Amino acid sequence: MNVNGFLACAFIAITTALFSFAGVYLGEKTGTWLESRAEVLGGTILILIGLKVLLG
Fold this sequence. Notes:
Blueprint: H1 5-34, H2 37-55
């Protein structure tokens, strides 16, 4: 592959930062709304992703 390493790292860093800020913002807005259900929701999503990968 003929890819500029610096450009690829910069793109990954910017994308990660944007998603992190979005996650913090959404967590702040929905934290009191979801409370303890957030852990169950996150776990359920991870289990579903795992099943999708496992079953193809």
